[in-house]
């Protein structure tokens, strides 16, 4: 598979036993014989998503784009992070300052309970044509429900609900108010929902080529579900579990491309919520390099040796910018004249990996050729497949999240519900 390349270095252990365990976990995942089997609908989404569904998503996205300058997407967790990750990764870094736009600006709400954030969002909505996409299976999750209650009174455009197909508060409200609706499949959990309408509709509104995204996911599906030792999802799951068994307890996902910040946030939820239970699981953390080498680099290099570092790399940037010669050379950088900025970035990546491996930090490197819809779709599916395999290797149900309810019970009690 050329879409995703993986390299594991500095583990100090034979990965063969873990790969064998991973093959057994992969069989459990594919055959649906493990815990959480009722939530495996994401496995074949790249193949089973109907053309008619894609067509309707694109039509509704086009309607929203024609009617609204701003589209507010309301959701939290898996109803928000995957969408945000893809849009941020595929958008201009300074999108807010571009003078011309071909698609509405997508803003987010319901992912926090900040009074200032919501108030400032209302400032932006005022005086603009605004539509809303609200994502919630039940319609009663506190954060998005609060945001929707407030924001819907300030929306002057259409509202689209992505929710349960048969029941729930949001489904009832959508039927009553005549909102257009899309269904969250019953067999797909929130953190695995990025390739359902939950992610695809707002992505399409933002101008993402969702057909190419699904095409990339299909290629990854063929490789990441293959019972072969070179399966990259299997290698990733095996390496992180082998290192966990050695006492490593924290995995840092490091990217060398600032557009991948929210991909890291999505990854953190995917693995944290899937594996962090029964006293088990690697703690998923994230850093943006080279920026965070000037804040976290010292700790990673010489702190306690409980870390795994997974590096996410993009082989070829979308733009080309070369370093020019300077007559004075006061900064001493003329030796780099003619080189691309990305050459410096790649040498920083290699140098960092060499230093951290020498410092006792095992390294897993995951590379995609380009940061586009196709390869991003492949990367999303790769991480999902690896998460399912890894969770079963760990001996937990990767598809439930019982601990999430603890804070809600306390919050509701304190609020007097």
**Percent helix range:** 40-55%
The CATH superfamily of the largest domain is Glucose-6-phosphate isomerase like protein, domain 1
Largest sheet: 5 strands, mixed
Shape: globular
Number of domains: 2
Describe the structure.
The chain has 417 residues and is of the alpha/beta class. It folds into 2 domains: 220 residues, Glucose-6-phosphate isomerase like protein, domain 1 (Rossmann fold), CATH 3.40.50; 168 residues, Glucose-6-phosphate isomerase like protein, domain 1 (Rossmann fold), CATH 3.40.50. It contains 15 helices and 10 strands. The strands form 2 sheets. Strands 1-10-9-7-8 form a 5-stranded mixed sheet, with helices on both faces. β4, α6 and β5 form a beta-alpha-beta unit. α1 crosses α14. The mean pLDDT is 94.
Search tags:
Rossmann fold, single chain, 15 helices, five-stranded parallel sheet, about 45% helix, 10 strands, alpha/beta, five-stranded mixed sheet, about 425 residues
Strand and helix layout:
Elements: E1 5-9, H1 16-31, H2 45-48, H3 51-67, E2 70-74, H4 81-90, E3 105-109, H5 115-125, E4 130-135, H6 142-151, E5 159-163, H7 169-177, E6 180-183, H8 197-205, H9 210-224, H10 232-245, E7 250-255, H11 261-275, E8 283-288, H12 297-302, E9 307-314, H13 341-358, E10 363-368, H14 373-394, H15 405-415
Parallel strand pairs: 2-3, 2-4, 4-5, 5-6, 7-8, 7-9, 9-10
Antiparallel strand pairs: 1-10
């Amino acid at each position: 598979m050329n879409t995703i390349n993986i390299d594991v270095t500095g583990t100090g252990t034979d990965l063969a036993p873990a790969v064998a365990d991973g093959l057994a976990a992969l069989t459990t995942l594919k055959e649906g014989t493990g815990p959480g089997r009722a939530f495996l609908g994401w496995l074949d989404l790249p193949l089973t998503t109907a053309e008619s569904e894609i067509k309707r998503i694109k039509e509704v996205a086009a309607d929203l784009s024609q009617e609204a300058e701003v589209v507010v997407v309301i959701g939290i967790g898996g109803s928000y992070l995957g969408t945000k990750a893809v849009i941020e990764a595929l958008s201009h870094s300074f999108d807010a300052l571009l003078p011309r736009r071909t698609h509405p600006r997508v803003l987010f709400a319901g992912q926090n309970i900040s009074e200032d954030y919501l108030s400032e969002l209302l400032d932006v909505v005022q005086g603009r044509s605004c539509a809303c996409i609200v994502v919630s299976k039940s319609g009663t999750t506190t954060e998005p429900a609060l945001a929707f209650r407030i924001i819907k009174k300030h929306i002057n455009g259409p509202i689209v609900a992505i929710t349960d197909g048969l029941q729930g508060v949001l489904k009832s409200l959508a039927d009553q108010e005549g909102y257009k609706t899309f269904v969250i499949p019953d067999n797909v959990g929130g953190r695995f929902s990025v390739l359902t309408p939950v992610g695809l509709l707002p992505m399409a509104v933002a101008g993402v080529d969702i057909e190419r995204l699904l095409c990339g996911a299909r290629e990854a599906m063929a490789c990441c579900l293959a019972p072969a030792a070179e399966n990259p999802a299997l290698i990733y799951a095996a390496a992180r579990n082998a290192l966990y068994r050695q006492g490593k307890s924290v995995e840092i996902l490091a990217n060398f491309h600032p557009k991948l910040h929210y991909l890291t946030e999505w990854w953190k939820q995917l693995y944290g919520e899937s594996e962090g239970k029964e006293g088990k699981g690697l703690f998923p953390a994230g850093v943006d390099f080279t920026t965070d080498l000037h804040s976290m680099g010292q700790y990673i290099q010489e702190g306690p040796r409980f870390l795994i570092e997974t590096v996410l790399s993009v082989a070829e940037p979308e733009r080309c910018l070369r370093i020019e010669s300077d007559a004075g050379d006061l900064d001493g950088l003329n030796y780099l004249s003619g080189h691309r900025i990305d050459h410096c970035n790649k040498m920083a990546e290699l140098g960092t990996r060499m230093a951290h491996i020498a410092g006792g930090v095992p390294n897993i490197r995951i590379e995609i050729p380009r940061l586009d819809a196709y390869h991003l779709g492949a990367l999303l599916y790769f991480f999902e497949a690896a998460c399912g395999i890894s969770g079963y290797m760990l001996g937990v149900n990767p598809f439930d999240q019982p601990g999430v309810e603890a804070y809600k019970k306390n919050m509701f009690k304190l609020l007097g519900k």
